[in-house]
Specification:
about 0% helix, about 170 residues, Immunoglobulin-like
Length: about 170
């Protein structure tokens, strides 16, 4: 598992709804859509959009009680998995120093704890974009297997609803 710094920039669009307009309505489960990937030297910026009907995306910094306690799967609420093209198939890549993709090696996962985004007001529906900087590398520097990579993205809300699993486009490294 790669440990990386988290730099998330959240851009909200359509957050302020005029009271005379019908409020936006979305499913309570987060819905994601891949937008783009940008190479920034050795790091990379992954951008995706989201909607959430009940606006319970994100965790407060002091929200550490179960199930959001350290060591729990739900401590993090955004998971990005790394894939490489191998023999014509997408394979979840591992951080095996031998570069063998051993079943005993840890798969490469970027795990993030996104802050609370719940809007104030009566309508809690959220729509926006999340940008994640993948550091220190956006690619597996010890792999010689592939020049084609991609990512899967999963977002989890405070009700433990999992988003749809989305994939980036193919990225040539």
């Amino acid at each position: 598992m790669i440990i990386s710094k988290l730099k998330i920039v959240i851009v909200f669009s359509s957050m302020c709804l005029i009271s005379c307009l019908k409020p936006e309505s979305y499913p309570n489960e987060p819905i994601l859509e891949y937008l783009s990937f940008e190479i920034l030297s050795d790091s990379g910026k992954l951008t995706f959009s989201f909607t959430d009907g009940d606006g319970n995306i994100g965790l407060d910094q002091n929200q550490l009680d179960a199930p959001f306690d350290p060591g729990s799967f739900y401590y993090y609420n955004c998971y990005i998995n790394y894939y490489e093209m191998m023999d014509g198939e997408w394979v979840r890549a591992t951080a095996d120093p031998q570069g063998n993709n051993s079943p005993f090696a840890d798969s490469i996962t970027y795990s993030y704890r996104i802050g609370n985004m719940t809007p104030v007001g009566q309508n809690k529906a959220l729509k926006g974009e999340i940008e994640v900087i993948l550091e220190p590398f956006y690619f597996n520097p010890i792999s010689n297997h592939s020049d084609s990579i991609k990512y899967s993205i999963l977002l989890i809300d405070r009700s433990l609803n999992h988003s749809n699993l989305i994939f980036s486009s193919t990225i040539l490294r």
